[in-house]
Automatic annotation (TrEMBL):
This protein's record includes keyword Membrane: no
List of catalytic residues: 10 (o-(5'-phospho-dna)-serine intermediate)
Entry-linked PANTHER family: DNA-INVERTASE FROM LAMBDOID PROPHAGE (PTHR30461), SERINE RECOMBINASE PINE-RELATED (PTHR30461:SF2)
Record keywords, A-Z: DNA integration, DNA recombination, DNA-binding
Record protein name field: Multiple promoter invertase
GO MF annotations, alphabetized: DNA binding; DNA strand exchange activity
Alphabetical list of Pfam families matching this protein: Resolvase
Gene Ontology biological process terms from the UniProt entry: DNA integration
PROSITE patterns to which the protein is assigned, alphabetical: RECOMBINASES_1, RECOMBINASES_2, RECOMBINASES_3
Domain of life of the native organism: Bacteria
Organism of derivation: Lonsdalea britannica
Limits of the Resolvase/invertase-type recombinase catalytic domain: 2-140
Amino acid sequence: MAIIGYVRVSTNDQTVINQKQVITEKNYNVEKWFSDEGISGSVEAAKRKGFGSLLDYIREGDQLVIVGIDRLGRNTIDVLETVKVLQSKGVQVISIREGFDLSTPVGQAMLTMMAGLAQLEKDLIAERRTAGIKRAQSEGVHCGRPVKVTPGQVKALISAGMKPAEVQKSLGISKATYYRLRMDL
């Protein structure tokens, strides 16, 4: 029986060190660590490189220790399926933050609620992000990738007598972009 640790952070600005520290401070002697750094919890657990390796490595009788259920994912169905796969392999899943036994009916009910809350949090973050982008756009802030070619540049080259194909080649734009920018003139 081995104790396996799994840690995940969503952005490259975050670090897994804090999660590892929480697990070791709870006196779990982790034999092997698996991690996914800069990977969103909305990506299915089995499709994450680190978690996929964990699934290949982990054996019956092992314990998987995580800081919280949300480290497994932020999609209720995916989290429930992930725990089900682990339990079918005979793996005990230990979530430090929630502190309940996932193998009991009460633990399963709590898992479902916690996974649902993780998904709700993800959805609220997305909603706030979308609202922030819309507000910024309404204030005239450009959102998205930088504009490389402007309608004015296209107009200047057309005025200089260049043909459409020459303008496209000169500015490095596609035919569709050329005609879209011409419509903005």
